Amino acid sequence: MLSRFRLYDEKVLAALSLGALVLVIVLSCFTRLHVGILAISFAWIIGLLAGISPNQVMAGFPSSLFLTLTGVSLLFTLAEVNGTLEHLAHALTSLAQGRALSFLLIFFVFSAALSTFGAGALSTAALAAPLAMGAASRAGISPFLMALIIGNGANAGNLSPVSPVGVVVTQTLDRFQLSSLAWILYRNHLLAHLLLAILILACFGGRSLFTASLTPSLQPRPWQRHNLITLLTLVLLLLGVLLFQLPVGLAAFAAVALLTLLRCAPEDQVLARVPWSILLLVSGMSLLIALLERTGGLDLFTSLMARFSTIDTASAVVAFVAGIVSAYSSTSGVVLPAFLPMAPKLVAQLGGGDVTALLSSICLGSHLVDVSPLSTIGALCLASAGPEVDRNRLFRQLLLWGLSMSIIGAIASYFFFGKGWL
């Protein structure tokens, strides 16, 4: 019955819905409460206050996004469970032939490529960190340098339209008829991280990169039938998406069904290791953002951002704010669903600007801080460091780096995107 009546006027509802979003973000930074569950709960409560029926609230659930993310996650979880991704990592490691610089470059390219092809940054880092951090320590390569290379490499390909985070970005852009920008954002993101990786090697590499030798952390194992079938399926899926515009989520479900029938991986283990928590987080936040759009909360959020921005500084401002929030919260589950819909509205309120520059700045600012040990990627690198590594020192280094990236991201976004350097 409550859903039939609007209990507050439009301005109050906009403020309440925006307050709900801010509260969810704050709780995501400082508590262990699952943000997706909170977001769905707040969406229902705000819907009641706004006179929006439960069915209309649930209509904002991103079913297409959920299916796409689930399909991609299932496929790459299967490839991880049956050892295909690990075999691929070892095969590429052998290409370094004992040279430290080659090892670093190969792992950057491998991480960026694997993330691009659909694994996403988190899965890529989970695979690469244990192998790379141990080998780097024994070779005399700075664990801090190795962590930065893995993190930036994994994030470099994270906006690919076939990766989980890229799917979030593409689906969000599609709501504003901006899906054609997906590959442009990926290109901008990749180039920015590549430039940063070059600077990292120049600043933190030193002569040891040219003299250190590597001891393989694990001996490569021969490829098995199920590994070859899985790798071939991944390649065919990627080609189908790129050349024939196959829907990546549905195609991934079909690929998983085929690989399961061919006994390439045990289905129960695959299902148990899918990151369901992340899927619920992204979907719940998207549901809340959809309600914010309906109640005017998103317009109010945009107005607040516009007060601190000009057409010239907007790229830097949104990158800085996105970076600060992302340092303590989830990039894919909280920051991108909340900030990306704001970009076209901010351009309208400022009376001009480049929406592509703002979108690129939000993505770059939120990703650069992810090597912090407070984020999953940084934590994976820290946990994978060898026993001889001073982990307290590495923690401080990564924390300082991650927090400083909110400022560096703002500066880089101002010049790369705001000034059109990229």
Counted beta strands: 0
In the predicted model, the low-confidence regions spanning at least 5 consecutive residues are: none
Give the overall form: globular
Sheet/helix structural class: mainly alpha
Tell me about the largest β-sheet. Answer: none
Count of helical regions:
21
Number of domains: 1
Radius of gyration over all CA atoms, rounded: 22 Å
- Which sequence of SSEs, written as H and E, runs from N to C? HHHHHHHHHHHHHHHHHHHHH
> How helix-rich are the residues, as a percent range?
over 70%
Q: What percent of residues are in strands?
A: under 5%
Span between N and C termini? 54 Å
Would you kindly provide a written description of the structure presented here, covering whatever features stand out?
- With 422 residues, the protein is mainly α.
- Helices cover 76% and strands 0% of the residues.
- It is built from 21 helices and no strands.
- Helix 2 packs parallel to helix 14.
Q: What characteristics describe this protein?
A:
0% strand; single chain; mainly alpha; 422 residues
Short structural description:
The chain is an all-alpha fold. It has 21 helices and no strands.
Draw up the topology in text.
Blueprint: H1 10-30, H2 35-50, H3 54-58, H4 63-81, H5 84-93, H6 100-139, H7 143-156, H8 164-174, H9 182-204, H10 208-211, H11 225-244, H12 248-261, H13 267-273, H14 276-295, H15 297-307, H16 314-328, H17 331-339, H18 342-350, H19 355-368, H20 376-384, H21 391-418
Helix pairs in contact: 1-2, 1-14, 1-15, 2-14, 4-6, 4-8, 4-12, 4-13, 4-14, 5-6, 6-7, 6-20, 7-9, 7-20, 9-19, 11-12, 14-17, 15-18, 16-17, 16-19, 16-21, 17-19, 18-19, 19-21
